Amino acid sequence: MPEKHEPLPPLTDAKRQELARRLADADANPGDVVPWEVVEAAARARFDGSGLP
Predict the structure, then answer these.
(1) Where are the alpha helices (DSSP H) in the chain?
(2) What are the CA-CA distances from residue 24 to residues 7, 17, 28, 39 (Å)?
(3) Known Pfam families for this protein (predicted)?
(4) Alpha-carbon radius of gyration of the chain
């Protein structure tokens, strides 16, 4: 049975504007992305052996 979650609070105007800006930038620059696998590998390399999860 799925867990029940509290509803998320509404976005502030500032957060809504930032989200709109980021979405517009992503639409305007679809090739300007970093694949998740690259981000994950970089994060793991950075934190491996540091005692952090």
Answers:
(1) 13-28, 36-47
(2) 27, 10, 6, 22
(3) Unstab_antitox
(4) 17
d(CA 53, CA 44): 9
Tokens read off for 18: 């930032």
Q: What is the mean pLDDT of residues 1-23?
A: 91
List Cα–Cα distances, 9 to 14, 18, 20, 31, 41, in angstroms: 14, 16, 18, 32, 32
**CA 52/CA 45 separation, integer angstroms:** 11
